[in-house]
Amino acid sequence: MNSKLIFPAIALATLAAVHAQPLILQGKSKITVDAEAWSKLPHEDLTATGHDKKEHRYSGVAMAKLLEKIGAPAGDQLRGKAMTEAVLITAADGYQIVFSLAELDASYRSNPVILADAADGKPLEGNEGKLMLIVPGDAKHARWIRQVERIVLVSVQEPAS
Questions:
Q1: What counts of helices (H) and strands (E) characterise the chain?
Q2: How many domains does the chain have?
Q3: Which of 9, 26, 89, 134 is a good FRET partner for 156, with 20 to 30 A between their CA atoms?
Q4: How far apart are the C-alpha atoms of 72 and 78, rounded to whole Å?
Q5: Where does the Oxidoreductase molybdopterin-binding domain start and stop, copy by copy (predicted)?
């Protein structure tokens, strides 16, 4: 058997499997967002400076809209105990970031955080994966998580002493 044909075939199968991976949203309910469901979500565009220090036009779904789907408190409901809720976002490689719920709410920020699926009119691919979090206004890109697979609403509580 020709190994020159086997390895590219394995690489293509792996790439196809990664792109077929649905997005998992978990909060008061758990939702699996496949490619068809994703295409039906409202998309918006924003311009931001990417990892490469160049300005790009990103297209994707506002995090506030995704969190709404899993019952996250928003707007006037985001006060009191709800202010201790956070959002844990996980990438394919296990990299994780956390936002307070308020940081992603439209009533607390002037520019939306989006989960982008395209940049400059082209679908994201390669190192970015199919979904990348775009956080306009962050001084560093550490929270611009690439290859997003899971978004989970968590409650933060002080540990018992």
A1: 3, 10
A2: 1
A3: 134
A4: 9
A5: 50-154
**What span, in angstroms and rounded, lies between the C-alpha atoms of 42 and 95?**
27
List residues bridging with 151 in a β-sheet.
Answer: 25, 89
- Sole residue written with tokens 């058997």: 1
> Locate tokens 């565009």: which residue?
45
Mind listing the pLDDT tens digit for each residue in 97-109?
999 999 999 888 8
Q: Is residue 8 part of a domain?
A: no
Domain coverage including residue 134 = 22-155
Percentage of residues in the chain with pLDDT exceeding 70? Answer: 88
Q: pTM for the complete prediction? A: 0.83
2 in a domain, yes or no?
no
CATH number for the domain that contains residue 54: 3.90.420.10
Among candidates 136, 114, 138, which has minimal Cα distance to 124?
Answer: 114
| Long-range contacts of the stretch 119-126 (C-beta < 8 A, 24+) | 119/50, 119/56, 119/57, 119/58, 119/59, 120/56, 120/57, 121/57, 121/59
Q: Is residue 103 part of a domain?
A: yes
pLDDT of residue 20: 58
- Please state, in angstroms and rounded to a whole number, the distance separating the CA atoms of residues 88 and 10: 32
